[in-house]
Amino acid sequence: MNSSVPYNNSNRFDWVAIGLYLGIVLFGWLNIYAAGYSEAHAAIFDFSQQHGKQLLWMGIAFLLAVCVLLIEPKIFSQMSYIIYGVVLLLLVVTLFVGTRTNGGQSWIDFGAFKFQPSEFAKFATALVVAKYISAIDIDLKKFGTRATLALLVLVPAALILMQHDTGSALVFAAFLLPFFREGLSHYILLVGLLAVVLFVLALLVNKYILLGILLLVCLLYLFVWLSKRTSKHYWHTALFFVLCSLFTLSVDFTFENVLETHQRNRIYVLLGKVEDPRGVGYNVNQAKIAIGSGGFAGKGFLNGTITKADFVPEQETDFIFCTVGEEWGFLGCVVLVAAYVWLLVHLITMAERQRSTLARFYGYSVASILFFHFFVNVGMVLGLVPVIGIPLPFFSYGGSSLLAFTLLLFVFIRQDADRNALI
Question: In this structure, are residues 145 and 187 in contact, taking their beta carbons and an 8 Å threshold?
Fold first, then answer.
């Protein structure tokens, strides 16, 4: 295409993505209103309540979305390193002046206004990694490239982990999927899956797992001997045993010194090592009761008895999905899940039609981050994954998360609108 194509000729916004965003946000607000509903605060514009505050954040988020759509997309890529640097600075500042909430020191207070930099770190990282990986001479097979990409992702994740916000730090694992799309070896994924398996087994069977690893290595040596491989393969097998053993032995230290006490207990409950329905397992137990009580069609809007009795803590934020299950039933849950799946699949389709590596990688990053949040949030409410305290995108109560997710999504929608112009 001729580079002289006027900029404004490429203004074609994806209204499917915008429509799904608006639908999820509005449905989320209805459930925030339902979760905190009381006759004393039934007014929609009661800004002393969470539903009123969320309405204000929705207005700001919609204004932010419009502003992003009016900005030339090149500005975001040109400013990517500056945005990334500012967010890293805010993460460092949070370590010193941040307010501790629910065990994590991840908020900066400005009077009545609270700001969570870690929510914007995902956007900044997606933008800067997309900028770096789109450079002409970047080769994912080179060690230097991999090391740089790892640093760009791990530095903000480490700063967030230092704030004792393990859930938000784990979200950065979502960047593996965009890396694979750009050609990263699938062996990295296999190593990651092996690490997860070893971690779980080390918690379940402790040091006896080393015997299993040793048995596996013996089988590998037998295979190498029977297939008459070179001595190099013997050394690789020995190295495999050493690395797996060191990782397994480090699990106890990591589990005891990195994770908070309540996070360790939640993992033990999930693995079945601890039964604590009135302690760390209380939230999940009550959430499942609320969802199950909704039946097929739900109890009706504002008619959730478990919701009204405040049996489920954090029901407007991390456990908002159980409000959907109780008041809207199985049908409401299916509709909400279908909306998220439709949005995620559509974002991948949008990413694949991009002409630039930057927009394609950024699009996959957006889809991966949203998928991680969606899967883990719904999974922890249903008791399928440990409770790590991350919001349901566009749906949970919270100004920082809504603004950050809105910015993350609409920058990509703006990039997609300009996909037919040379970047």
Answer: no
What b/e string do you get for 37-64 counting C-beta neighbours within 10 Å, with b at 16 or more? beeeeeeeebeebbbbbbbebbeebeee
Give the pairing of strands 104-110 and 99-101: antiparallel
Which residues of 103-232 form beta strands (DSSP E)? Answer: 104-110, 113-115
- Which residues touch 200 (CB under 8 Å, ≥6 apart)? 271
Q: Are 189 and 180 in contact (CB under 8 A)?
A: yes
**What stretches of 171-275 adopt beta strand conformation (E)?**
none
104 forms bridges with which residues in the sheet?
Answer: 101
- Lookup: tokens for 406: 């809105």
Name the burial class of residue 186, with classes exposed (0-12), middle (13-18) and buried (19+) by CB atoms within 10 angstroms of its CB: exposed
> Could you tell me the pTM of the whole model?
0.85
10-residue averages of pLDDT along the chain (423 residues): 42 89 96 85 82 94 95 91 95 86 76 84 95 78 84 94 86 90 74 72 64 64 60 62 71 70 67 57 79 88 78 81 92 95 96 92 96 93 82 92 96 90 51
Q: Which two tokens stand for residue 85?
A: 């640097």
DSSP run (H or E) holding 80: helix 80-97
CA-to-CA dists, residue 17 to 77, 345, 346, angstroms: 21, 10, 7
Q: Lay out the sheet containing 104-110: strands in order across.
A: 99-101, 104-110, 113-115
Give me the sign of the Cα torsion angle 268, 272, 273, 274: positive
Per-residue CA distances from 272 to 108, 256, 375, 387 (Å): 37, 18, 21, 14
